[in-house]
Each structure stands twice: as C-alpha cells, then as structure tokens.
Amino acid sequence: MVDEASEAAPTAPSDEALHGAVIVGVIPDQSSRVLKEAARYAKLFDAPLLVVHVDVTRFVTYEDPDGYVHSAPIDINIAAGEGELAKVTDAAASVLDTFDVSWSVRQLVGDPAMAIKHLADQLDARLLVVGTRKRGLGESIREFFTGSVGARLAHRQHRPILIVPLGEPVADDEEIWPAS
C-alpha cells in the first residue's frame, strides 16, 4: 500500500495507523540502501514504514493542539523543500514497490534530529533508520559543527537506531577527519 503525503495533506495516514512504525530519514539522492534496510526491518516487525524528509529551510513557528505544525521559511525560496520532497517520494516509490510493506511519506521541518525525535514520540516508533553522510572534507566540517543526526538521536531518545553506512568504509589506519 502506498500513501504519499506531506504533513498537512488530507490523505496522510493517521497517527493511529502509524503507531509503532519504522521511521526512516531520507534526503534527496541518498543511496537506496537506506530505504531497503528500513523496508526489511518494517517487514520483519510487521510494522508500517514512514519515509521522512526534513526540510531544513523551514522552522516550526507553533503547533496546534491537534498536532498541525505551522512553519515559516528561513529563506524565501520555499520551492526548494517541495522539490526535495518530490525527489524523496519518487525514490521511495521506485525502491519500495518491490517490498511488501505499507509505507507513506511525510515531510517535517526544522532540525532533523529533533523533528524525527518528536515524530517518533508521537507514533511510539519501533525503530529509527538513518544513513551516514558521504565522506569528504565539506561533510566532515558540517558534521563537526552540527553533529551527526544518528548520534544526536542516540543521545535524545530511547528507541533503537539503525545507522546504515553509505559508501566505502574508512580503513582502520585512515583518519576519518583528515587534517588540513
């Protein structure tokens, strides 16, 4: 079953239907390995799979008592987040059509670790799945200042987290963050 929706869309599955879901955080152009691993665990747990994209160009302004989230753009270009959601939805459809799991897509806003944590609390998620960042100096600097989403989730909530490695592993004798 496929139900693709953003957070405010009327066709989005209810939070009750997603209770105990496996949540997978996905970014555009990410390796399909992350979605495949999440789908394997959703099937293993007989749980729905919720594919989540966090729009970091927007932030939460306030949340209604019914859970509806109001947001505002950090930047005037709000089409960027919509384009990223479309890429994530297309990637999910192409990968997950081969799996026998119920899945849907939801877009969140703000800080990825905090947004995923909040959603996991709402749904009493069974497992969180995220990928590692690509290797490179720019990504290493970004991770140094912002921290990895997986590490931040591990310190801020109690659910198990599956961190799917992307790319080739670093050799035992190689520095992860090369000196400049």
From TrEMBL:
The UspA domain covers which part of the protein?
A: 22-165
Checking InterPro entries in the record gives: Rossmann-like_a/b/a_fold, UspA
Query: What Pfam families would the database entry show?
Result: Usp
Q: Which domain of life is it from?
A: Bacteria
Name the family: Belongs to the universal stress protein A family.
What PANTHER family has UniProt attached to this entry?
Answer: STRESS RESPONSE PROTEIN NHAX, UNIVERSAL STRESS PROTEIN UP12
Q: Which protein are we looking at?
A: Universal stress protein
Origin species, per record, is Microbacterium allomyrinae
